[in-house]
């Protein structure tokens, strides 16, 4: 991470996120020339993460209290670890995970990117990697000129990982099962914060993802069921 603060984040719709964190709307614009100040960490973190947020979700704000509580936990843990290490900035390294469950269109992806945005302005460094499960499998398919293991480690070792739409592929294959297991097992063993969404019903989870993956998810994740109707259809 480079500590040269981007000059401005105006036009980024940050006010609701800053308000949720208890900051004034212009808190993040402070230029105090201390590279380690929470404001500069927030500006850098937001600038870095916003490049990974799809245009459609660029203004997403989380609404679920469970997501807010999760962000609070990650921020608090990062500060405790910073105090222990006596480091210059607080960074999210370890933490619990979340599993957002709900039908297509209820707002899972919106909530997930909202959480990513809100955590980004918290003043704690949070480095995200994001993917849909389908894109992950496609990126990891062995092919000429690609080191699939290096690619896999990018996701496996990410500080924070969003896996959108886990378990939605029509036909799970040995390949996708293996990726799911290796990814979830590693994140579970190392206590790495992971945000997972899925439109599977709770009953279908084991059938589609297998005991080994679901068992680990049950231990590492708080499960958040999302109710509601398809917002996309309503909008149409
Ligand atoms: N809280 C919200 N406020 C405004 N629009 C929302 C909200 N939640 C979801 N949407 C919109 O509803 C649609 C479906 O949401 P999305 O998160 O993509 O659903 P899912 O990932 O559950 O299929 C999207 O167009 C999204 O932008
Ligand atoms: Mg979605």
Biggest sheet: strand arrangement: 2-3-4-1-5
Number of helices: 10
Morphology: globular
Helical amount: 40-55%
What is CATH's topology name? Answer: Rossmann fold
Hey, roughly how much beta strand do the residues contain? 5-15%
Number of DSSP-assigned strands? 5
CATH architecture: 3-Layer(aba) Sandwich
Query: Kindly, what is the distance between the CA atoms of the first and last residues, rounded to a whole number of angstroms?
Result: 41 Å
**How many structural domains in the coordinates?**
1
CATH class: Alpha Beta
Contiguous low-pLDDT stretches (5 residues minimum) are: none
Mean pLDDT: 93
Write a brief structural summary.
This protein is α/β, with parallel strands linked by helices. It contains 10 helices and 5 strands; from the N terminus they run αααβαβααβαβααβα.
């Amino acid at each position: 991470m480079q500590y040269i603060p981007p000059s401005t984040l105006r036009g980024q719709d940050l006010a609701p996120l800053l308000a949720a964190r208890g900051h004034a709307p212009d808190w993040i614009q402070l230029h105090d020339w201390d590279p380690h100040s929470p404001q500069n960490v927030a500006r850098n973190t937001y600038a870095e993460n916003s490049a990974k947020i799809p245009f459609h979700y660029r203004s997403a704000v989380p609404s679920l209290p469970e997501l807010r509580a999760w962000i609070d936990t990650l921020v608090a843990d990062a500060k405790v670890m910073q105090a222990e290490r006596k480091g210059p900035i607080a960074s999210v390294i370890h933490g619990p995970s979340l599993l957002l469950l709900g039908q297509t269109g209820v707002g899972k992806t919106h909530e997930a990117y909202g959480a990513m945005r809100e955590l980004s302005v918290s003043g704690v460094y949070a480095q995200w990697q994001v993917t849909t499960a389908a894109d992950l499998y496609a990126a990891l398919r062995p092919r000429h000129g690609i080191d699939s293991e290096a690619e896999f480690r990018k996701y496996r070792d990410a500080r924070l990982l969003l896996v959108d739409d886990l378990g939605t592929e029509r036909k799970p294959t040995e390949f996708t099962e293996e990726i799911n297991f290796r990814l979830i097992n590693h994140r579970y063993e190392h206590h790495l914060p992971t945000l997972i969404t899925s439109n599977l019903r709770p009953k279908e989870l084991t059938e589609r993802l297998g005991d080994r993956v679901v068992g680990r998810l049950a231990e590492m994740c708080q499960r958040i069921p999302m109710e509601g109707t398809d917002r996309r259809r309503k909008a149409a």
